[in-house]
């Protein structure tokens, strides 16, 4: 016989009512558990990384220096691309303006002003 069987029926009803209220009051408990698990993983990773850095400081310094050099090279490349006038990313292309054909004439806009043909 378990402890729950020995409790009076009223106590069991009270426990069920409290648990139902807790489930309604905290619908994001799953998210809290997920966040707690993520924080636990980050904490364990930080502890492991700290131990590695304490044992191998030269490797850690070399990794940080390499990351800094990569960041610096990327920043220089971006600055050079901007200075050359090339698009930084994407597939933009330049469209040159063309003069209209000699016999094309002009067309009127809504307000009545003349405008040259834009083709």
Report on the architecture of this protein.
- This protein has helices spanning 3-6, 9-25, 29-55, 57-84, and strands at residues 106-108, 114-116.
- The chain has 119 residues and is mainly alpha-helical.
- The chain has a two-stranded antiparallel ribbon.
- A hairpin with a 5-residue loop joins strand 1 (106-108) and strand 2 (114-116).
- Helix 3 packs across helix 4 (57-84).
Helix and strand topology:
Elements: H1 3-6, H2 9-25, H3 29-55, H4 57-84, E1 106-108, E2 114-116
Antiparallel strand pairs: 1-2
Helix pairs in contact: 3-4
Features:
119 residues, mainly alpha, two-stranded antiparallel sheet, 64% helix
Shape: flat
Which oligomeric state applies? single chain
Measured between the Cα atoms of the first and last residue, the distance is 92 Å
Relative strand content: 5-15%
Strand order, largest beta sheet: 1-2
What is the tally of beta strands? 2
Number of helices: 4
Mean pLDDT: 77
Order of SSEs, N→C?
Answer: HHHHEE
Task: Work out the helicity level.
Answer: 55-70%
Radius of gyration: 35 Å
Short description:
This protein is mainly alpha-helical and 119 residues long.
